[in-house]
Write a structure and sequence with these properties.
Layout: E1 7-13, H1 21-32, E2 36-42, H2 48-57, E3 62-65, H3 70-74, E4 79-80, H4 82-87, E5 92-95, E6 101-104, H5 107-117, E7 127-131, H6 135-146, E8 151-155, H7 159-169, E9 172-173, E10 185-188, H8 207-211, E11 216-218, H9 227-234, E12 239-240, H10 243-258, H11 264-277
Parallel strand pairs: 1-2, 1-3, 4-6, 7-8, 7-10, 8-9, 10-11, 11-12
Antiparallel strand pairs: 3-5, 5-6
Helix pairs in contact: 1-10, 1-11, 5-6, 5-10, 10-11
Bound molecules: NADP nicotinamide-adenine-dinucleotide phosphate (NAP).
Domain Shikimate dehydrogenase substrate binding N-terminal: 11-93
Keywords: Amino-acid biosynthesis, Aromatic amino acid biosynthesis, NADP, Oxidoreductase
Organism: Acidimicrobium ferrooxidans (strain DSM 10331 / JCM 15462 / NBRC 103882 / ICP)
Length: 278
């Protein structure tokens, strides 16, 4: 296939206007002196396959895929990396030289990077409770179990969805006031607390769980301090938002497209700057 010149990349989502990914990848390209164009594409679910097919025809290098397309994208690629196959989620598509598509999820390395760098925690032996049962929760449960967490509990308003997650990836369902739910770390993986989300002023982590938490990671990154993070900090708990995860998953995508990537600090710096600009 003939590649677009300069190289063409982007992120497909719906909505997508507030994505920080174009700014993050532009900063990485500058740091490496690499030339490419990275666009945000607003694509409705019914048009996802056509959009990806169009990018192949245009000679794009690859594309990020975000809400609500991550699961659908997994069915549209020719090959899945093991993490994407296990989590049934694709956030990175690489268009190979022969036009075939490889799907990956860099959310897995993203969440592990944040636990290590933001909170200074070793995952091995950690008791974790993940709140939520959507795509980000799936990546988180998989990542933590693969990295050797001692236990991963799943707390979600939809208990059947939590049970399905536990059945397919491991971990166990946690229900309200579950005394067994000790949590060295609580990972908030719902869209509650997110600006523009279903409940921006709320928190999906109940007080009884926060009472027994050793640290909190909220995967939401907009706003930078969510109601949950405020509550965690009031209790003196180590707490972080989803910005480092966002930066680390962007670096994982970049590496898949170009074989190498600038240091994580370039991506984190760009993510912070883009988030501050709103
Ligand atoms: N930092 C990063 O790099 C990164 C990466 C991925 C995602 N995220 C963030 O993680 C969050 C979830 O993303 P996702 O891709 O997992 O979305 P998703 O697949 O749509 O899942 C959303 C989850 O939130 C739950 N939820 C929604 N409204 C709720 C409410 N009012 N009360 C309780 N639970 C509620 C859903 O429960 P039901 O199943 O019952 O609807 C579901 O479990 C988003 O805020 C996203 O920005 C961050």
């Amino acid at each position: 296939m003939r590649r677009a010149d300069p190289e063409l990349l982007g992120v497909i989502g719906h909505p997508i206007a507030h994505s920080l990914s174009p700014a993050i990848h532009a900063a990485a390209a500058r740091a490496e002196g690499r030339r490419f164009a990275y666009h945000a594409f607003d694509v409705e679910p019914a048009a996802l396959a056509a959009a990806i097919g169009g990018l192949v025809v245009l000679g794009a290098r690859g594309v990020n895929v975000t809400v609500p397309h991550k699961v659908a994208a997994a069915a549209l690629v020719d090959r899945l990396e093991p993490e994407a196959r296990a989590t049934r989620s694709v956030n990175t598509i690489t268009i190979e030289d022969d036009g075939t598509l490889t799907g990956a999820t860099s959310d897995v390395e993203g969440v592990l990077t944040s636990v290590r760098d933001d909170l200074g925690l070793e995952v091995g032996g950690l008791r974790v409770v993940v709140v939520g049962a959507g795509g980000a929760a799936r990546a988180t449960v998989y990542a933590l179990l693969q990295a050797g967490a001692a236990s991963v509990g799943i707390l979600a308003r939809d208990v059947a969805r939590a049970a399905e997650l536990a059945r397919s990836l491991g971990g166990s369902v946690v229900t309200a006031h579950d005394d067994g739910a000790a949590a060295d770390l609580v990972v908030q993986a719902t869209s509650v607390g997110m600006a523009g989300g279903p409940d921006p002023a709320g928190s999906a982590v109940p007080d009884w769980l926060l009472d027994r938490a050793g640290a909190v990671l909220d995967l939401v990154y907009r706003p930078s301090v969510t109601p949950l993070l405020e509550a965690a900090r009031r209790r003196g708990l180590p707490a972080a938002n989803g910005l480092t995860m966002l930066a680390a998953q962007a670096r994982g995508s970049y590496r898949r497209w170009f074989g190498d990537a600038p240091s994580l600090s370039v991506f984190v710096g760009a993510a912070r700057e883009a988030a501050a600009e709103g």
